[in-house]
Amino acid sequence: MAHTHTHDHHHHGHAHPHSHGPHAHPAQAAHWSILRMPVPARLLAALAVSACLWAVVWLAMR
Fold it and tell me: Under 8 Å CB-to-CB from 37, ≥6 apart: which residues?
């Protein structure tokens, strides 16, 4: 027995203000981005941040 199933995809509009007027901020070139770092450097940075946060937790628990 074949089973057919249809989905009605209704897109509910969510209002997000989006300004194109003179007060809109132009995109700026990023001087530094974690996405431009090679993967090993990202892992080292994540480990360093994690170690610092654990040090803060350790000091707070003392």
Answer: 45
Does the reported pTM lie above 0.85? no
How far apart CA 37 and CA 46 sit, in angstroms, is 12
Q: Which two tokens stand for residue 13?
A: 């509009």
Q: Which two tokens stand for residue 51?
A: 């170690």
Handedness of CA 42, 46, 51, 55 (dihedral sign): positive
Q: Per residue in 11-30, pLDDT tens?
A: 566 666 665 666 777 877 77
Distance from C-alpha of 42 to C-alpha of 35, rounded to nearest angstrom? 8
